[in-house]
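Same chain as my last thread, 149 residues:
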Amino acid sequence: MAPAGFGYCFEDLRVGMTEVLMKTVMADDVIGFAKLSGDNNPVHLSDHFAAQTPFRERIAHGLYTASLISAVLGTRLPGPGAVYISQSLNFRAPVRIGDVVKAHVEVVELDADKRRARLHCECTVDAKTVLDGEAIVMVPSRDSLRKRG
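reply #2:
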């Protein structure tokens, strides 16, 4: 396990390592995400509008759910110092207010020459996949951290 607040250096990563974050989606989270992102689609903000859609109730922004993956990558695996290179996302099902989202990340490939990790990313609600994809992140080496310190 990585030391608290430090994350992993590239040399510490191994294929198969995993990390999970769980978050209950609250109405205030959805409103805050709308304010932050500027995405004021009424399917996220209006009970009346959402009731007229196939979802029948307000849903969270897809990128709100994806941001939970970013939280795992930036704070847990690999952790602080990791920098996104790319992220693919497949939205499989809606996430509703009150849902408990489990964001799961797994190291699937390591490129030592470039200090990059490829990670499988999946978000589930009640064991049903609501989002999946793949991230590639650049991870600092021990040497690069020593030079900074």
